Amino acid sequence: MLEMKNVYKKYKNGVTATNGIDVKIDQGEFVYIVGPSGAGKSTFIKMMYREEKPTSGTITLNGIDMGSLKNSKVPLIRRNIGVVFQDFKLLPKLNVYENVAYTLEVIEENPKNIKKKVMETLDLVGLKHKVRMFPDELSGGEQQRVSIARSIVNQPKLVIADEPTGNLDPDTSWEIMNIFEEINTRGTTVIMATHNKTIVNTMKHRVIAIESGRIVRDEQRGDYGYEI
Amino acid sequence: MKSNTFFRHIRESFKSLGRNGWMTFASASAVTVTLILVGVFFAIMMNLNHMASSIESDVEIRVYIDRTATEEDATALEEKIAAMPKVDSVTFSGKDEELDSLISSLGEEGEAFKLFQQDNPLNDVYVVQAKTPNDTIPLAEEIDEMEFTANVNYGQGTVENLFSTINFGRNIGIILIVGLLFTAMFLISNTIKITIVSRRHEIEIMRLVGATNSFIRWPFFLEGLWLGLLGSIIPVAAVGTAYYYFYDYVSPKLQGHFIQLLEVTPFVYQVGAILILLGAIIGVWGSLMSVRKFLKI
Ligand SMILES: Nc1ncnc2c1ncn2[C@@H]1O[C@H](COP(=O)(O)OP(=O)(O)O)[C@@H](O)[C@H]1O
Ligand SMILES: [Mg+2]
Description:
The structure holds two protein chains of two kinds. Chain A is of the alpha/beta class. Helix content of chain A is 31%, strand content 26%. Chain A has helices spanning 41-46, 74-78, 96-106, 111-124, 140-152, 170-185, 197-202; strands at residues 2-10, 16-25, 30-34, 56-61, 64-65, 81-85, 158-162, 189-193, 206-211, 214-219. Chain A has a six-stranded mixed sheet with strand order 6-7-8-3-9-10. In chain A, strands 2-1-4-5 form a four-stranded antiparallel sheet, with no helix packed on it. In chain A, a hairpin with a 5-residue loop joins strand 1 and strand 2. By secondary structure, chain B is of the alpha+beta class. Chain B folds into two domains: 3-55 and 162-292, no CATH class; 60-154, 2-Layer Sandwich (Alpha-Beta Plaits). The two termini of chain B are 19 Å apart. Bound molecules: adenosine-5'-diphosphate and magnesium ion.
């Protein structure tokens, strides 16, 4: 579903964050992206949902060339990709329900279906009882659940997560990982940058290691491979 | 856009007003302060302008007809003047009428002039009114060139002074209005700056989940519109009421003077409509300004 060919990314300040990447990720895979800080993991991920454009090389997502995509078409692409971040990125003035519903309102989903889908998804992440609460009334783990619910409520083919457990304690991290595992089991591709060694070594999946903007290792059921 | 989505935007914009609490209050207050200033100022300007216009339109040209002119000559002159594009009206005032009005305007001393009633030394006069008061002077000069005019009088000197004073006043008014609008923009944009940081963050997130620019913009547009309308309530009520009482108090004192205030109706409705429109424009402008930067096209 996702393919990168000879991708380079040089930021305006001269930093080369992606230094020749070739990779192919199939539908239904679960992929960890590991590597030291500043290695280029986030940049790699950002190019997948067109937050950044590659300087050269091609990125195709389900046959669409992300590099030459018009800015006005970017929102349409984003509707097929769920994104989850370390800092949750919830809309602060919307409550739990509204944050999740926003994804569906954007695609002009029938209001009758919105309620049903939102409640089902909140049930999946275990937050059905807190629908009227606002982000600042929730714990980090709960906020991350909302953010995951928002990213999957419209059933995208791909969910991308950049250090989703980076701000969470170990127990909460496991709960969050179980949700991702469940999403993946249902057929959604999951691509996740992480620094969590225990998780990578326990919940085994494909591991892509990036250093200095290059892929240095790509193994099925791999290990984290770094000392923390 | 589906109609459901449109209702969603309306709902969202009202919700946002409520949840933004004191920011809503601050923005609406900024609009209110601005509009009160504009409203008061506008009422003063319009009244001064009204007075100036009645003074101006009182200016007339007196064309003294040459005593040697025959009746046909005089009629030809009248037709010639009336045909000029700048002329609004021509009225004849015979020399006997002229003498009577001179005598009565002089009172006691006028009695002496009664002697002239047998052998009137005055001229017949055409009283000419220009369509636009500012055209009076060039018009008078043109008429002066014509045959059978003995003299042309429009209050030379005083009228020039009057006109330049009135024009000066109007220019000052325009400058003040422009200044006021700039102050308003400064006031509003300062209020907006406070919201900008949080909006940048919000818009970034909205884009992340696939919202198009117009989907993001609509609620902000509507929110700005409500803010502007909300902010115009007090100014419309205050300026309207104040003018009503002011008129009530002042206009009896102007009774019999030829300077008059503008009637309460329709004037307060006009001011009200202008303030509401201005409020809406300021609100929408301010709101869209605050999101424009973050919407990459
Ligand atoms: N927007 C940006 N502008 C300039 N340089 C950037 C930007 N984002 C990241 N970088 C640089 O690119 C390199 C890779 O960063 P990043 O992709 O965030 O790495 P990681 O997520 O692995 O820590 C770093 O040197 C970082 O400073
Ligand atoms: Mg990173």
